[in-house]
Amino acid sequence: MATTEVERRRGQLAALSIAAVVIIVGVPLWWRTTETYRAWLPVSQIQELSKLQLHLSADVEVVFARGTVTPEQQKKVPLTQTQDEEHIVDEDTALRYRYETRYRTATIMEEDALNQPTAAEADLSLHTLSESPCGSLVVYVIPESSTLLLEDTDVYVGQRRTALLRIGAQMRVGRTLEQLLAHLEPRIQQVLHVMSFSHTDITAALSDRVRLSPGNKESIADSMRAFKSSPGYEITFSLLNPDPKSHRLYWDIEGAVQTYIQPLLTKLSPVANFSIDSQTLHYAMLGVNPRFDSSRNAYTLIADSLAHVINPVEARLGSNAASSNPVLNFLLYVPDAHHSPLYIHDHKKQEVPSNAFHSPRWGGIMVYNVDGFYGPEAVFPVDININMAKVMGVFLAQLRLLLGVQSSTPPPGFVVAPCGSTGLADWELDRLMWSRSVENVATATTTITSLAQLLDQIGNIVINDNIAEQVSSALTSLQLAVAELEAGNLGFALQYSKEAILASERAFFDPSLLHLLYFPDDQKFAIYIPLFLPMCVPILLSLLKIVSEARQKRREKQAKKD
Amino acid sequence: MAAYRCYYPAVLLILCSFSVFVVADTEDATLINGQDVTALNSPQTASKTAAQTAEQPAVEERQWEATASAAAADDQDRTPDTPAPGAEVQPVVPPVLPEPKDSFQEELVFRPLHSGDIYASFQFRTLWETDFMRGNKVSHYRLFPKSLGQVISKFSVRELHISFTQGYWRTMQWGQPFLPSPPGAELWVWFQDSVTDVDGTWKELTNVLSGIFCASLNFIDSTNTVEPSASFKPLGIGNETDPRFLRYATLPREIVCTENLTPWKKLLPCGSKAGLAVLLKSEKLFHSSFHSQTVHIRPVCQDWQCKTTSWELRQTLNVVFDLHTSGQSKREWSLFKMFSRTLTEACPLASSSKIYIDITDNPQGEQFELTPATTLLSQAVVLGDRRTFSVYDLTQQATFGNTRSLNLLIRWKSSEGDMLRPLLHAERYVAGYGLQTGEIHTLMYNNHPYRSFPVLLLDSVPWYLRLYIHTLTVTSKGKDNNPSFIHYQPSKDRVRPHLLEMLVQLPPNSVTEVTVQFERALLKWTEYTPDPNHGFYVGSSVISSLVPSIVAMDTNSTRERPLFSSFFPCKEESSYFVRVYTEPLLVNLPTPDFSMPYNVICLTCTVVAVGYGSLYNLLTRSFQIEEPSPGLAKRIANVIRKMRGVPPL
C-alpha cells in the first residue's frame, strides 16, 4: 500500500500547488487588470476643509480732526488696537472677525477737506486725498461744533469708504484718552456694522454650508431673494406687448442701459461679469386674468395671484443660448387696451406705488400703463414712447436687491449719502464682496468635500488626472482665498474664491466621472462566474478534503497515543 | 469530481439567465450615459429640462413680494440726482418715434398640383438692419428672435441654413419646390473668417441649435460633417468662399414632429397668435404627404448698390396635403379643411401679408374655381417660368369681406391637364446582393429638349460604406461622360465620411448614371444603432445646377418681389439656380447577434473549464490498480451458488 500512499500525497501536493498558483498569480493579475484608474486626490486636505475656520479682518482708520483731542492726548496717538470677535456657527464652522483700528490725527490737507461747507463735498475731497484700499474704512471724528452735519445727525456715511462721526457733547476736552476711546468704541462699532461686514450677512452667505435655524419669515425671505454667487450673470430686459394691434411701443433700451444700468455694472465688475440684452415679445400674456375694480375704474392684480403671472411668460422668454450663467429677467408689461389701467395690489389691498414686483432669484416685473397717453377716441394703433427713466428707476432698485446689495435701514442718527450716478457706494460694494467671498468659499468647500465623498463611496468611478488637477487647484485657490480674507485683502480673496468655485465645479461636473458610474457589482460577477466557479470549486473541494484528511490523521495519531 | 460534473450544467443555466440581464442592463446604462453626456454638452437643454421639472413646485415655493417700499423709496432718492435725459420730457401725444430698423413680411403660396394634391408654402421674412460682423455687440432685439441673434453673434456665423423635413419631395409628380430640402435634418453654416477653431465652434453650435429646435442635431459630429468645395456657395453677400469656413451635415434619420414646430413658431414675431401663423396647427400639418420647415439666416443688401446691409431671417414651411388621405371623393380644398382654421387678420407687425394662389394652368377657370374671387393678379418669374397668381392682401380689410374671416375655397372642375416635366430630376438606389459589397447608382435626368447644362453632384457617404473610387463610372446615352471636375476626399474610419463632388455635363434629353461600388464595413458592437436590422441611412445626394430658363430672370435681388421667388440670388438672366435632392439610401450592414459576447464568454469558459477540469483531475487523482470485475456469467453463477448455499467461485 506504500505506492497508493505516495500517489495520494502527490495528488494532495498537486492540488495545493494549483491553489497556490491561483492565489499568488491569478488573483493579483485579475485585480490589476480590472482596476479602474483613480488618480490621487489630496484627501487629508479635503477633510481639513470640512472644518472651516474663517478669519475676516478689516482695517479701520480713526482720524481725529482738530478740536477733538487735546495736545496731551495727541501725543499718545497714533496707536493701534485690535478687536476680535469669535462666533461658532455650528460644530464644523467657526468665524472670527478682527478689526484692526488705527488712531491718528488728521493731516493738514484732511483738515482743509473737513472745512468744506457740506458733508458731501468733504466726502469727495477726502476721497481725492487718499484712496483707501478695498475692504478698509476711514472714520473721521469731527468736533461737536462742526457744521458739516445737520443738527440731529451724528454720523454721515459717505459714498466711498469714509464716514464722519460727530463726537458726543459730553466728551468735552479734558477727559483722558482712554475715556475718549471708550466713548467712541461702541459708536465706531455701529459704523462698522453699517459699512463693513455684519454677522447676519456672513452667516447668510454661509447658508450653503450651514443649515441655519429657521428664523423669522422676514429673514428667510431676505436671504432667499438675492441670486447665488456666480461668476457671471445675464441680464435680460423684455418688453411684453400683448396687444400690438393697439399699441406700437418704442423703448430706448440701448440708451437707458447705458445711462442707468451700465455704471452700476461697471462698478460691480470685480464681483461678476454681466451681459445685458433686451427683446420685445408680442402677444405675451400674463397667466392671470386681472380683476376689474369698478370703484377705481381700473383692473387689479392681487398679491396672492402674482405667483401665477410668470409661468406662461417664461416659456416665451427663452433661455440664453450663449452661456449657462443665471439669468435675471426684467419684464416691462404694457397691458392691452381692454385691460388698462392695471394696478398691482399688495396684501393690504393698497396700490403698489411703483406698480412693480419682483420674484426672488428670478427677476422683476413692472406694469406700465399707457392708457393715459391717449384719449378715448384715439385711433389705434397708438404710438407710445416709454419713459425709460421711470422704468429704469424701478429695475435698478430690483437689480440691487437681486444682486444682494443690502440696503438695511441705518440706525437712528445716521445719514447715508445718496449713491451717485454709479448707483452703488464703495462701502456697499465692499459689503457685497465680503459676503460673496465667504459664500464662494463655503460653496467651493461643500462642492469639493461632497465630490471627495462621492468618489470615496463609489469605487467604480474613474478619476482622471485632469479631475485631480482641478481638485488640487481648487484647494490651492481656496487656501489662498482663506489666507487673503485673514490678511484683509478683500480683492484678492474674492478673486481666489471665484477661481476655487470655478475649478471645483469643473471637477464636479466633469463628464468623465459618469463613465462607469452605472456598472454595478452583480453584473460584473455575472461575467466572472462562468470562469471562476468551475475553477475555484474543485480547488476548494480538494482543499477541504485535504484538511479533513489531515484532521482525521491527527485524531488517529492521538487515538494511538492514548 | 463527480459532484463538479453534476453542477456544471446548472451553472451554465444560471449563467445564461445572468447574461440576459447583463445585456439588458448594460444597454440601459449606455443609454443613460449618452443622455447625460448630451445634457452636459448642451447646457441649454439641460437647464431647459431642469427648468421644466422645477417649474411645478416653483409655483408654490416662490415668494412674491411687491417691491413697493424699496422701489418707491428708490424713486424718491434716485430720480432727482440721476441725470435723466427723458425724465423731464413727458412723452407727448403723439410722440415722434424713430424709424424701426427691422421689418417683417409674411406670405402664403398655394399651388394646386397635377396629382390633385395641394402645395402650401409659408414664407416669413424678418429683415434687420444691423451689423453682427463688426465685433460690436448686438444685444437689443425687437422683431428678430433673441435666441438666434445670440447664436449668430456668439459663434460668428455668417450664414445659417437649417431644414427639417418629413417625407420626400416627389419632383416628377409635383414639379420643383420653391425651396428644396432633403428628408430628415440638414444644416449648413458659413462661419466668418475670424473663427479660428471652426470644428470646435461647429460642435458647440450644433449642440445649441439642437436645444433651440428640440432636434437631435447634437448627433452631428465629424463622422457626418463635410466641407463641400463648390456645391454650397454663400447665398448672401460676401465673397469669401473658402470651404474651410463651411460645414455641411445631414441627419437623414431625423424624425420631424410637433416638438420641432413649436420652437420654430416661437421665432415668429407674432408667434402663432396672429397673421398667417394661426394656420400652423400641428395635427393638420403633420397629417400630410410632405412637411418641411426651414430657417435661413444670411446677410443681404438693402439697396441696389449694396450700401447698407441687413440680416435676413427667412422661415419657410412647406407642406403638401394629400387629396386621398382626407377620405373624400369630392375634389375640394379650403383653408378650413386644410388647417382647421380661417384667417381673420394679418400680423399687425408685418409690413406685408399676402396669400398667392397659382392660377397659371387655370386662366379661364376651367380647371378649378376659386372663392372668394379676387381681381388682384400678379405675375412672377419662378423657377424659370412666368406664373400668374391671384393675390389676397390681408392688410386690406376688404379681403375679409362681411364675415370678417377669409376661408379660401378651391373647387376642382376637371382633373385634366398635364404638367411640364421638370427639367432636372434625379434619383438614387443601391444595387447588389449580399452583405459584403454593393453599388450606388445615381441617375440624373436632363429633360431639356435641346440644351445641355452642367450639374454639380455632391455625395457624402458615411465611412462604413467603403467606396471603391476606381469603380466610379459616369455614363450618359451609353457613352462615358468624363466629369470636368472631381473632388474626392477619402473617408477615415470613425473620423470622417467620404466626400465626392463632381461637375458633370448633362447632354440634352438624357439620363446620366453615376455608379460606384462599395464594401460594407463591420462596425464595433457599440457602434450599432438600437435597431440595427432596420438599416443605416445614407444622406441624399445634392445636385446643384444652373438650369437654362425659358424666360428672362430678374437679376436685381433687391427689387420688391414675392418672397417665394426671391430666395436664390440670380446672377444672369438666361438661367436659374436649382437644387435637387435625391432619396436617402437605406443600407443594410452585416449585423452580428448581439448576445454573442456573452455566448462567447460562456463557450470559452466551458472549454477552459473542461480542459482545466480534466487536467486538474489528472494531476490530483490518485491512481491504483483495481481488480478486474468478474464477467456476467460468473456473477450469475455466483448468485445461484449463493442461493444454494455454496461458497462463490
Précis, in short:
Chain A is built from 15 helices and 17 strands. With 562 residues, chain A is an alpha/beta fold.
Descriptive account of the structure:
The complex is a heterodimer of chains A (562) and B (649). Chain A has helices spanning 2-33, 43-49, 71-76, 108-114, 119-129, 177-195, 199-205, 217-225, 253-268, 310-317, 388-403, 426-457, 465-487, 490-508, 521-561, and strands at residues 52-64, 79-90, 93-105, 137-142, 155-157, 162-166, 232-241, 247-250, 273-282, 291-293, 298-302, 327-333, 342-345, 356-359, 363-367, 382-385, 414-416. With 562 residues, chain A is α/β, with parallel strands linked by helices. In chain A, the strands form 4 sheets. Chain A has a 7-stranded mixed β-sheet, with helices on both faces. In chain A, a hairpin with a 4-residue loop joins strand 10 and strand 11 (298-302). The longest helix of chain A has 41 residues, at 521-561. The mean pLDDT of chain A is 80. Chain B has 649 residues and is α+β, with helices and mostly antiparallel strands. Chain B folds into 3 domains: 1-23 and 595-620; 102-412, no CATH class; 424-587, Immunoglobulin-like, CATH 2.60.40. In chain B, a hairpin with a 5-residue loop joins strand 16 and strand 17 (437-446). Classes of the chains: A alpha/beta (562), B alpha+beta (649). Chains A and B meet through helix 1, helix 8, helix 9, strand 9 and helix 10 of A and helix 1, helix 2, strand 1, helix 3 and helix 4 of B.
